[in-house]
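User: Can you predict the 3D structure for this chain?
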Amino acid sequence: MAGQITSASVNAVSTELYAHQKECAARYKAIEEKLDSGNVKSVRLENMIWGLYVILIASTLLPIG
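Assistant: Here is the predicted structure, written as structure tokens:
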């Protein structure tokens, strides 16, 4: 009979679902690590921009010649 649920089909689906969850967990961990490394880069860029602000403001306040 088509569409009948058997213990073999339940076990197969359970096994596939478990493998899928493990694979997704590994993917999410990799994504999180990439985001964390990108955060370090963005902090460094932000500090460089603040340094440029200081230089621009200081250059307008210093008298010329």
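The chain has one helix and no strands. Residues 9-65 form one domain.
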